[in-house]
Amino acid sequence: MAHAAQVGLQDATSPIMEELITFHDHALMIIFLICFLVLYALFLTLTTKLTNTNISDAQEMETVWTILPATILVLIALPSLRILYMTDEVNDPSLTIKSIGHQWYWTYEYTDYGGLIFNSYMLPPLFLEPGDLRLLDVDNRVVLPIETPIRMMITSQDVLHSWAVPTLGLKTDAIPGRLNQTTFTATRPGVYYGQCSEICGANHSFMPIVLELIPLKIFEMGPVFTL
Questions:
Q1: What is the extent of the structural domain holding 69?
Q2: Of 35, 154, 184, 189, which has the fewest Cβ atoms less than 10 A away?
Q3: How many cofactors are bound and how (predicted)?
Q4: How confident is the model at residue 81 (pLDDT cuts 50, 70, 90)?
């Protein structure tokens, strides 16, 4: 999860998030290069006497500053499109979870386990145990296996919500009357936090998402479902 004074992105827990972080660093280096070239050109313009009249008709220079920006855009667009298509792929998921947004809590349904359904509310401050996180912990966590393709079916019962877990690279809108889906494969066990990322009313800030990722062998044992 994020911590105080953090500058970069959260550590990746899925292949998609690793790709997003790599693309972020790639685009950032291009932005730094553009900023450096623009500042260098401004510095030369302010400190150099413009006495050379030969630059009034420099077709080679015009060709370069036309082709160079187009090349930079291609270098940014190609990896971006690749990741965009990767996020839409659904490759034979092993487990399907349905998430329904309400004002202001989430309902989860394990469709592959006899229709197990439970609500997930934010823990009030009076019920927090030592080590719990204020405004982030919930009474019922979503327990999922690692290294297993998982499909999330996301919808809403009242207003627009957004199911987002940054460390997994997930952010999918929950729309009333529409069923959106996203897939992910977690690579590390642990507890990961997210929040509703769509302004959905007065208590929008109090709709946390908590995923507890465990090894597949432990998940298949079953006691994690005794809520």
A1: 15-88
A2: 35
A3: Binds a copper A center.
A4: very high
Amino acid, res. 122: M
Residue 64: its pLDDT value, please?
85
- Count of the separate structural domains present in the chain: 2
- Tokens at residue 94, please? 């092993």
Q: Find, among 25, 148, 20, the residue nearest to 86 by Cα.
A: 20
Query: Are residues 80 and 108 located together in one domain of the fold?
Result: no
The answer to whether residues 118 and 209 belong to one domain is yes
Low-confidence winner among 54-68, 90-104, 206-220 (lowest mean pLDDT): 54-68
pLDDT tens sequence across 40-52: 988 887 887 766 6
Q: Give the end of a domain, one of 48, 71, 88.
A: 88
DSSP element (H, E) containing 42: helix 15-47
Q: Are 139 and 213 contained in the same domain?
A: yes
* Rounded Cα gap, residues 190 and 197, in angstroms: 22
Query: Within this chain, do residues 202 and 156 fall inside the same structural domain, yes or no?
Result: yes
pLDDT the model gives residue 216: 87
CA distances from residue 22 to 12, 17, 80 in whole angstroms, order as listed: 10, 9, 11
At 132 the pLDDT is 84
> Can you give the CATH number for the domain in which 110 is found?
2.60.40.420
Q: Give the distance, in angstroms, between the CA of residue 115 and the centroid of all CA atoms in the same chain.
A: 28
Q: What is the mean predicted confidence (pLDDT) over 109-131?
A: 87
The candidate with the shortest Cα–Cα distance to 200, out of 154, 160, 152, 165, is 160
Decide if 124 contacts 134 (C-beta within 8 A).
Answer: no
Cα–Cα distance between 24 and 14 in angstroms, integer?
15
Of 58, 88, 118, which residue is a domain's last?
Answer: 88
